[in-house]
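hey
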């Protein structure tokens, strides 16, 4: 096997036939395989791939159930092949497959660990990216340089080829979350990585839509924090602190406005501020901390009600605990902080049990049904 190409997919049904035929053309003369890693896309991408895989030994499908994530999909795909050189490429035709032979020849002839397909150097370009997207990409690059300890024009690229032995070196230190697998790979190496770049022009999407959103950006920051702190923090911690921090700001701004300009009594203002922060935290947690279990429609409203009730207990526990500590002679700020910690831990655990749980149970039940159906299909 000369080369394996890993293609993560989520709702890419229409792109599959095109990408498979282009890979066949460009990799003619090589021994190759393409491994699609699909996270059970609702649009039935996996069925389309399976259809091709049945008739073509170069095409393989890794079908993941109950999981989401670009990075983790790429890593599992890479681990499922024995090829010496492994490329990772988007399945949406935005990455130019025509440079695959060049990537392979470069990594092979210069005995490198990794070769990045770069959008903005050596003849590459950002294509018709929006200005906002270009700025976002530049910012990401600055932050990533700090953790990668190597100079790359495009550390945010999702298109690269690596040597199997290099993957083996770093795979146990990977964080796996978010979108930026390249940063994760480079930052996890304990020695300088031998890398090179090959330029190409990033194409516009024709079918389907991008899955990159604010959440992915926040997840990326979490990855950076984690790498900078040497992996001490649990993966979800930065997200949780991020949401909590925003809630704190909202709380104090509301409190300030109501007491200063609204002439509210302190207790009324404090309660209103807590309610505002709680509501905001509910929606942010739904989008960020529990993004993969998002509540929708009527569930969102009942979720908000349950969250508010649950957090009120948290607030009550916070005050009672802090008051007891304060009465026993502890400084007010220490007692206050201890109360906040207790309240937050309570809130996080109760939220993951109560607020976002029924939804998860429904998802699990859905999966069981799918399994039963699959079992029935096999029996038949
Ligand atoms: N299995 C799986 N699971 N695949 C996913 C998931 C997921 O949760 N999310 C996205 N993908 C697949 C998409 O189907 C597509 O093939 C590829 O990953 C890239 O996703 P896009 O949603 O098209 O990303 P993008 O075009 O906005 O972002 C690109 O540019 C970034 C740099 O700005 C990608 O190449 C990124 O990897 C890159 O970092
Ligand atoms: Mn894309």
């Amino acid at each position: 096997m000369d080369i394996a190409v890993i293609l993560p997919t989520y709702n890419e049904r229409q792109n599959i036939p095109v990408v498979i035929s282009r890979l066949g053309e460009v990799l003619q003369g090589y021994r190759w395989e393409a491994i699609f890693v699909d996270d059970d896309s609702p649009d039935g991408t996996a069925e389309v791939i399976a259809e091709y895989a049945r008739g073509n030994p170069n095409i393989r499908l890794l079908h993941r159930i109950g999981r989401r994530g670009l990075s983790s999909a790429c890593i599992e795909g890479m681990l499922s092949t024995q090829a010496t050189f492994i490329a990772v490429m988007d399945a949406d035709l935005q990455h130019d497959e025509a440079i695959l032979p060049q990537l392979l020849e470069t990594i092979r002839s210069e005995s490198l660990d990794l070769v990045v397909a770069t959008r903005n150097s050596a003849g590459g370009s950002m294509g018709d990216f929006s200005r906002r997207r270009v700025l976002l990409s530049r910012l990401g690059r600055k932050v990533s340089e700090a953790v990668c300890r190597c100079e790359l024009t495009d550390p945010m690229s999702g298109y690269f080829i690596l040597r199997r032995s290099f993957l083996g070196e770093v795979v146990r230190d990977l964080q796996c979350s978010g979108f930026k697998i390249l940063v994760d790979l480079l930052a996890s190496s304990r020695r300088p990585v031998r890398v090179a770049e090959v330029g190409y022009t990033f194409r516009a999407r024709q079918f389907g839509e991008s899955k990159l959103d604010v959440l992915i950006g926040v997840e990326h920051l979490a990855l950076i924090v984690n790498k900078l702190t040497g992996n001490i923090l649990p993966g979800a911690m930065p997200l949780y602190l991020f949401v909590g921090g925003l809630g704190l700001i909202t709380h104090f701004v509301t409190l300030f406005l109501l007491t200063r300009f609204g002439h509210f009594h302190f207790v009324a203002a404090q309660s209103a501020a807590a309610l505002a922060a709680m509501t905001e935290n509910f929606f942010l947690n739904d989008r960020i901390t529990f993004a993969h279990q998002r509540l929708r429609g009527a569930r969102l409203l009942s979720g908000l009600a349950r969250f508010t009730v649950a957090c009120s207990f948290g607030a009550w526990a916070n005050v009672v605990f802090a008051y007891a500590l304060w009465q026993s002679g502890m400084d007010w700020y220490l007692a206050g902080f201890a109360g906040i910690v207790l309240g937050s831990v309570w809130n996080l655990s109760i939220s993951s049990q109560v607020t976002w749980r029924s939804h998860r149970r429904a998802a699990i039940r859905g999966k069981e049904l799918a399994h039963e159906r699959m079992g029935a299909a096999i029996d038949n």
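Residues 8-10, 12, 37-39, 68-70, 73, 90-92, 94, 137, 156, 158, 179-180, 210-212 surround guanosine-5'-diphosphate-alpha-D-mannose (ligand 1) (CB under 6 Å). The beta strands are 3-9, 32-38, 59-63, 85-88, 114-118, 160-163, 195-199.
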